[in-house]
Amino acid sequence: MTPIWMRTTHRAVEIGFIIVLLFLGVVIVNESVRLGPTWGESGPQAGFFLFVLSIAMILGTLGVAYVNTYRTPDMRPFFEVPQEVEDLLKVGLPIIALVLLIPLLGMYVSAGVYLAFFMAWYGKFRWYSALAGGIILPVALWITLREGFNISMPMSAFYRSNILPF
Amino acid sequence: MEAFDLLMTGFDTLLTPTRIGFMMLGIILGLLVGVLPGVGGTTGVAILLPVTVFFEPVSALVMLAGIYWGSMYGGLITSILFGVPGNPWSVAVMFDGRPLAKQGKAGLAMSTGFWVSFFGAIIASVLFTFFAVPFAEMALRFGPPEMFAVLMIAFGTFIGMGGSPGKALIMIAAGFLLSTVGLDVVTGQPRLTFGTIELMRGFHFVPITIGLFGIGEVLANAAERYKVQIEDVTRAAKLGMHDITAGARAVFSNIGLASSSAVLGFITGILPGAGATPASFMAYGFAQKISKHPEKFGKGAIEGVIAPEAANNAAGTGAILPMLVLGIPGSPTAAILMAGVFMWGFIPGPRLFTEQPEFVWSFIASLYLANIAALLICLTATPLLAMMLRTPYAIMAPLIVVLSLIGAYAIQNAFLDVWLAVIFGVIGFILRRMDYPLAPLIVALVLGFSTEEALRQSLIMSDGSMAIFFQRPLSAPIMVVALLLFMLPLFRMFLRRYRRRQQASTGE
């Protein structure tokens, strides 16, 4: 039995997207009505522009819904081979992990850990190459950003306890 | 000759070691991002924009513009050698460049591409130099209704030109809506913030652009890795003296086609909303139509390299003109450059030409120098650039991700923006897969504020009547053109139905 993500068609994803858009459209119409979608005392009220746009978005969505799910539905699978999903997760999940690490380890250390991990795990590099990458990247970034352009980045717990300069 | 004198002042301002240095740095970076699949010129400019806040404005602008020009040249290398276009505007050159490479004429195709890119860009730069001032003078007479009408042309172009009009409409509306999040400038009311304080300052467009283009492309490439097999053809990337002269000769013997493609590209580029990608496709179609041997197209016709490359470089240059003169960018990359102009403390628009002539004219001067530099680098260092493709994916992808996140964070020192970039990366991946155009979203996001302002001011002037757009001598024709662009898909639909009915009645 093929897993569900392999049976999902373009049409199914499109339907999901349309539902999200319609929901957002309703939320925004609601917000624009709260702000006043019409003419105020001296000009258009704050909700006027929002109202026009949300209507445009809903019309566009209905048009796309008609064409892409009813007139000429795209029944190709969204993912063609399982390899796609696998590669996507292998690249995507470490990015999420990286963002979760930043508040704790700061931008520089997290970037180094992430590069080293990705090199060793996905790229099958030898451990010393990966380690070298993980050290060179944060140092190079720190020199360019901090010393070169004086741009501040989130710092690590090591920085706060004076172990590392970043 | 006024323009010529101003241009000379521009060269004077530009010719300092730092500024030339930053320009060269930009071009080299641009060539790199153009060559590397997965980072386009748009991403390169967006990622580096936050860094340039700390530069002196002229250096910042020539560096970012250098990335844009560099990526225009670099994109054709991968298109021709590997059939992997590094940028959307390098797709058209692939149709004939790739077959030429397969016939062992990669060197000829590339050097022709470089020469004609240079030729197109220089023609466009000359047009730019002499059109800028008259354009700015005309734009000075624009009031809010005229501005709004021109903005409508920009969005009309997105809807009228190719792709699904419904999807373009959704993307435009979504971009505008994202731009309205935060405090309303006129009344000060919070809009679409749903009671949260973080959303009060609104979405900055840089993290969103970085997400859609940077992270989004990394994810899109990850999912397509299984089918891309980059063979090692780095040896084919050598450009001999023979190729260089043959390329120049090929351009010279097709000088008419090259010039008309460049002019076509420049005009398409000026049209707000069109940009380099449609220009390259239009020029390709045009070349095929006027060719004496159209059947050779797609099988390695050198004209198929000349036309799109001349057009896309000219269009890239042209797209900057409305950005500087009107504050309306012609392409996503121009939109990011415009945000930069704001950040460096200037306001794009006709007054920039009278108030900051040095800034504007040194930029125009840099058009000439940057293209000369890019051509020289390409003709000499192509093997080196192609070698960059050997950088392992497991190093390249994390580097792009890290630089993207740094760019997203640096723009307002807000951690929320890092999440924003990641979320929009996922959204960008899905949208790309479902053929939603990303350019309208970015342009609308950048222009949201000025569009709403122009619309509100116009309506205040007219006391609420939409008729104001059709009553003023300047705004009326512009608005009519914009409306026609919006209607174009409808006309096309009726035409198709009419033809089908005719076929049905005659076919029996």
From TrEMBL, chain A:
Domain DUF1468: 17-154
Transmembrane stretches, start-end: 12-29, 49-70, 91-121, 127-145
Protein name, per record: Tripartite tricarboxylate transporter TctB family protein
InterPro entries per record: DUF1468
Keywords: Membrane, Transmembrane, Transmembrane helix
Pfam families according to UniProt: TctB
Species assigned in the record: Allomesorhizobium camelthorni
UniProtKB/TrEMBL annotation, chain B:
Record flagged with keyword Transmembrane: yes
Superkingdom: Bacteria
Keywords per UniProt: Membrane, Transmembrane, Transmembrane helix
Domain DUF112: 21-442
TM annotation in the entry: 20-39, 46-69, 75-95, 107-136, 142-161, 168-187, 199-220, 324-347, 359-379, 391-408, 414-431, 475-495
PANTHER family recorded: BLR4373 PROTEIN, TRICARBOXYLIC TRANSPORT PROTEIN
Protein's UniProt name: Tripartite tricarboxylate transporter permease
